[in-house]
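sorry for the late reply, my laptop died twice this morning and i had to redo everyting from scratch. anyway the thing you sent over, i finally got around to it. pasting the sequence first so we're on the same page, its 305 residues, then the predicted structure underneath. double check i copied it right bc i was rushing
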Amino acid sequence: MPDRTMQGVYPILSIPFDSKGRIATEDFERLIQWTVGHGVHGVGVAMASEIYKLTEAERDEVTRFVVKNVRGRAKVVINTGAEGTDVAIHYSKRAEGLGADALMIRPPTYVPSGGDETVDYFRRIAESVNIPIFLQDQSTAPVPPALAVRCAKAHPNLCYIKVEAPPTSPRVAETARLRGDSGLVIFGGAGGGFFLEELRRGSVGTMPGNTLPDVFVKVWNLWQAGKEAEAEREFNKYHALIRTLGQGQGLANWIYKDVLVDRGVIRAEAAFARHPSLKPDDIQRREVTRLLEELGLRARAGARA
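ok and here's the structure:
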């Protein structure tokens, strides 16, 4: 049976790129060590990592690199979705072979499929591997609660869902209500903006961006200790920053990396997003820097990478 025990904080890693779009490996290693060092329960390589902008060789390189540097201290989840079932199976087998603990897959969107075809897509992928799969429910690639439960019943490896299609809180609640004996395990995503609301409704974890692992782990630990009011007070301190980070792929890819520079994790020379990607203006950058200073998260100049 697949591992159904995963829970907690699973940040999606930002991949540091230089101005020519090359992976900045030293910065990436530092980022992984910093993230895992804050006690996260897992890490992911997915949409916020810009995985869809990687070549096939780079996908393998990144998976191998993350697994090597995590060193078993946290679970590793790799996004292996594709527009074709055979391609997704290929990506999934490669990720498993390179040491991934779980996969994350969203349904095809170029030619959207119906319910039966979507279930078949996920089932065929699940039959090709021996590790658990997170169904990824996004606004542009939805896996509604009833369909998610159908998938979970189609194969035991389809045992997790990352709920991101808004509004996430009622979607989590409906999934929890409908799942019955399917064994479907619910995570939240979408930057973690509704982390606590999702926990109250049946989620057991979140997959936010990679900028605030320390914050999310602290809030998670308070929640697990039964200190829900304290967890909410702590989380609410970061509401404005989390809202700013949750502006969608493209702009967010740049902002994540600007934050990681300001927090002293990566160098400014490694804080580029791959094209195409909307770059924040100077006003946005100043707003983010001010928020980090107010929250005491900005590293001293001498402490930056």
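Strands lie at 8-9, 42-45, 75-79, 102-105, 133-137, 160-163, 185-188, 205-206.
thats about all i looked at so far, will dig more tmrw
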